[in-house]
Amino acid sequence: PAARSIRSMAADAGVYAATTIALLMPWLIAVLRYEGIREYVQFRAALEPGSGRKPGTYRWYELQDPVVPLAKSRAPRIFYQDIQTQPAACLDPTGELVPDTTVWILPTADPFVLAVLNSPLYAWFARHRFPPALNGAVRPKAQYMRTLPIAAPRAALRDAIAALVTSQLDAPDPARDAILAELVAEAYALTSSERALISRQR
Length: 202
Hints:
The structure is a single chain. By secondary structure, the chain is mainly alpha-helical. It has eleven helices and three strands. The protein has helices spanning 2-12, 17-24, 27-33, 35-40, 68-71, 111-117, 120-129, 142-145, 155-170, 174-187, 192-200; strands spanning 77-81, 89-92, 103-106. The longest helix has 16 residues, at 155-170. The radius of gyration is 23 Å and the shape is elongated. The N and C termini lie far apart (47 Å).
């Protein structure tokens, strides 16, 4: 319905309607259903596989790498927010949530990683290593997240953090957040001066 109403408005205004329709519906559906879009798209030759894009069997209007298996995965995974003013990661325990374009997916359900991604230490690291956005936010793009150091704490400490994360998911408690922050700092062997530095910038 939205596409039809915009089409008539665009036609009245003398605008090529297919351009507007392509913006209002999934790109693949628009390309397959409306011949005018295929004719209108310029630089199609440059979008064909192997013409500057990676070789493959995908069509010129498709992504060159498959994302559906990860997006539709029924395995537990972690979502984290694309634009963050503070740590913002959550667990999808069933893999049934459908993310939108404002989150990234990590194919793990490790409670220690979840604790790290919601810790003051991560917030400090993000502000110093990730590209800035508006209003003091940061954008933890995948290429930057790959540089995020993940500690390897002793088994007892990792188990303690995992147990607290599980409890926090069941019944969030700010006091538990503070304990997790201290345990994550311990996992990274932070000194007292380093902990004080992070606390000052929270």
